[in-house]
Write a structure and sequence with these properties.
387 residues, alpha+beta, DNA Polymerase III, Chain A, domain 2, 3 domains, nine-stranded antiparallel sheet, 6 helices, elongated
Length: 387
């Protein structure tokens, strides 16, 4: 290929492309938003994708290269080419067969991809005006994963469609919380990094991270105990790790004072094996006709914690879980079967503590392995009850 721009190994380019492609907008009517920007930076090739609300940049080393004008290539077409090449392939980039094309050659294979001018590629605002803080990335990734099921992405209330991030009381860590009005998950991360969250009028310092930004951040930081950095402002969050930088716009709003709805800890508690309770709930939930209205009851009895439900058609299911029960016989509280199943599947502790108040108040589940997590489920009134 005459006037080659650079040579790069497939094993270097493909992972970088996969990371930045999480930011493309496949439904956008703006063609360039389905492209990736390739831009030289010395011996490094920088890649960038954006949908104007989320921007991901990654870098990879070129085997050899020279200065060339930034160029935007279609992500789907470039990805398809790279995936079909051998793992050991060395790719040579340069001018294509026609004016608005980029050529790629490897061995006897050659391609000419349509391109757009790199100068037309958009950038999602400037850099964040804030200090970069090193954090425990693995803790943040795990917290986002645990809280994800409590986010209602279709809620009309925009402030509930994301994750609330704020500082711990000690100031040396972060807290991730999510709620849809029925679930509430709070995961504390002491010692994870002293992030200076922006002040919010008539509320506590916090940000609201949309799921679109949370998902790539979680994937990037999975297992990243050292070297991850974060910066926040009132409008954006930026996370950097392993040569990748993610910027995401935040949800404009004020997260509710969610801690006010967490019932005070009482002496009425039930301690049971998580797996036994989850299995019992799944067995009883097999009888559910209407997940929205059929509630599963948790009933305290002398022989253990009873799990039961009655359906509209007269179907009945019951199970019993043994545990350490410190609540009066006959105490009953009902919950949605899917919510119980999702909550129990997210807890990793062998044993859990269930804190009770009364039949109309939410229950609170806490793992007993020392992890500072809290799971709240609102109470409901089942349509049918069998006595």
């Amino acid at each position: 290929m005459a006037d080659a721009w650079f040579t790069i190994h497939r094993s270097s380019l493909l992972p970088a492309l996969s990371r930045v492609s999480d930011a493309i907008d496949t439904k956008s009517k703006i063609p360039i938003l389905a492209h990736v920007l390739l831009q030289p930076d010395g011996a490094t090739l920088r890649l960038r994708c954006t949908n104007l609300d989320l921007q991901i940049e990654a870098e990879c080393e070129m085997m050899d290269g020279a200065n060339f004008p930034p160029v935007a290539l279609p992500v789907s077409r470039l990805s398809a080419v790279l995936k079909e090449m051998p793992e050991s392939a060395e790719l040579i980039f340069g001018p294509g067969r026609m004016k608005d094309q980029v050529g790629i050659r490897s061995g006897r294979s050659s391609f000419s991809l349509p391109c757009l001018p790199g100068g037309d590629f958009p950038e999602m605002g400037g850099r964040i005006d804030g200090d970069w803080i090193e954090i425990d990335g693995a803790k943040l990734a795990e917290a986002l994963k645990k809280a994800a099921y409590a986010v209602n992405k279709a809620d009309d209330r925009a402030y509930l469609c994301g994750f609330c991030l704020h500082g711990t009381e000690s100031g040396d860590g972060m807290i991730v919380a999510a709620t849809d009005g029925h679930y509430l998950v709070q995961v504390k991360m002491p010692g994870s990094g002293a992030v200076a969250f922006p002040e919010v009028e008539n509320s506590y310092p916090h940000i609201i991270l949309p799921p679109m930004g949370a998902d790539p951040i979680r994937k990037l930081l999975d297992g990243a105990k050292h070297g991850a950095r974060i910066a926040v402002s009132a409008a954006k969050i930026a996370v950097a790790y392993d040569g990748v930088e993610i910027q995401s716009k935040l949800i404009d709003g004020t997260y509710p004072m969610y801690e006010r709805v967490i019932p005070a800890r009482t002496e009425q508690t039930i301690i049971v094996p998580r797996e036994a309770l989850a299995s019992g709930v799944k067995r009883v939930a097999a009888m559910v006709d209407d997940a929205k209205n059929d509630g599963i009851r948790l009933k305290v009895a002398s022989d253990g914690l009873h799990i039961d439900m009655l359906t509209a058609e007269g179907g009945f299911a019951s199970d019993v879980v043994q545990g350490e029960i410190n609540a009066p016989d006959g105490f009953i509280v009902a919950h949605s079967a899917p919510r119980l199943e999702k909550t129990l599947s997210g807890i990793q502790s062998v044993d859990i503590e269930i804190s009770l108040t009364d039949e109309t108040t939410a229950i609170v589940m806490r793992p007993l392995d020392g992890t500072p997590e809290l799971y709240l489920l609102s109470a409901m009134r089942p349509r049918f009850v069998a006595e």
